[in-house]
Design goal:
This is Beta 1,4 glucosyltransferase. This protein is an alpha/beta fold. The chain contains 15 helices and 11 strands. Strand 2, helix 2 and strand 3 form a beta-alpha-beta unit.
Length: about 350
């Protein structure tokens, strides 16, 4: 059985760090915590779990801090988390099984990263990340902010999930790092352009976000999943400012990078339904239900668009054109995913009265 080092970088995480470490303390063989300047009780809490607490002077560089943490690992593999991440009980069992059975020829293991979940525990959005890597390969982190771990070799896509459970509102930290780098005249990489645009969008700076998303798309040497995501976010920006011509342009542009994704089909369906064109909307919502949800794609997945949402919208479309039996059928499919959703229950009672 392999041994595992947990490596984390933290700063002022007293509200979440115990929850995180409680969830994984029995899964790993050592815990290494790199503190980048906590002024709260983070170190005091962490000391209850490990003696490997190291200080790292913060230099506005997440990759540097993570690489420092990785250099201090001693076990066969390195597992990394953020302080507001947890492993749920079922995922702990999957993790232990993975640890017991992992073939040592594996260089990196990807795991699901559940970014948002609803109050019933259903995953809303997720992606995959390389979470468990062979220490002797000396894989490195890159990027001062929104850093990424560059891996190669034999990669296993596991079914273990890490769940993000943030209790803090996003700060201006990342945006300020990017803005300071710009002031210093730094030439941004395609990845930096994309993530800078994301930060601008999250801070409601829509015009600036549009500018940098477009710069990113013009580079032609970024990650295809980021290009697709940028198209979606540009469509979101243009919808917000009422420019529906450009909204449509960037929805359709996403098809240049790969076959249609369910979330873009739903965007088109909504556009046509909103403009009182239910037959055109039907086409796109139907297509969304026929697509196969990716299982090993590292990009972002909006699970609603691949499951219940297009069926709920097909219910609306069919109801508008008087095909109530089909409307009821799709509402029932949506109800299999979300049995307590108020809109679905309303549709059920409404359509049952009509059909009776």
């Amino acid at each position: 059985m392999i041994t595992i080092s947990l490596c984390m970088i933290v700063k002022n995480e007293e509200d979440t760090i115990a929850r995180c470490l409680d969830s994984v303390k029995d899964l790993v063989d050592e815990i290494i915590i790199v503190d980048t300047g906590s002024t709260d009780k983070t170190k005091e809490i962490v000391s209850q779990y490990t003696d490997h607490i190291l200080d790292f002077q913060w230099i506005d560089d997440f990759a540097a801090a993570r690489n420092f943490a990785f250099k201090n690992a001693k076990m066969d593999y390195i597992f990394w988390l953020d302080a507001d991440d947890v492993l749920m009980e079922d995922d702990c069992k999957k993790f232990l099984k993975l640890k017991e059975t992992l073939d040592t020829t594996i260089d990196s293991v990807t795991m699901h990263y559940n970014l948002t979940i609803d109050d019933k525990g259903k995953v809303i959005t997720s992606l995959r990340r390389n979470r468990l890597v062979k220490r002797k390969n000396n894989f490195q982190w890159y990027g001062p902010v929104h850093e990424y771990l560059e891996v190669s070799g034999n990669i296993l896509h596991s079914e273990v999930a890490v769940t993000h459970c943030s209790v803090h509102q996003d700060s201006d930290r990342n945006l300020l790092i990017y803005e300071n780098r710009l002031k210093q005249g730094e030439q941004f990489s395609p990845r930096d352009l994309f993530y800078f645009a994301n930060e601008l969008l999250e801070h409601d700076k829509l015009e600036d976000a549009i500018k940098y998303y477009k710069q990113f798309l013009s580079t032609n040497n970024g990650w295809v999943e980021d290009y697709i995501s940028a198209c979606g976010r540009l469509a979101e920006c243009y919808y917000a400012i009422g420019d529906h011509e450009n909204e449509l342009h960037f929805i359709l542009k996403s098809f240049e990078y790969d076959s249609p994704r369910a979330d873009f089909c739903c965007r088109l369906g909504y556009r046509f339904l909103h403009n009182n064109h239910p037959y055109q909307a039907l086409f796109w919502y139907k297509l969304a239900t026929q697509l196969e949800k990716p299982t090993d794609n590292l990009g972002m997945i909006n699970h609603a668009c691949w499951t219940w949402l297009p069926h709920l919208q097909l219910c609306v479309c069919y109801s508008q054109i008087g095909k109530h039996a089909l409307a009821y059928e799709h509402n029932e499919i949506a109800r299999e995913y979300l049995p307590d959703h108020p809109s679905i229950l309303h549709n059920k009672h409404y359509l049952e009265n009509i059909l009776e």
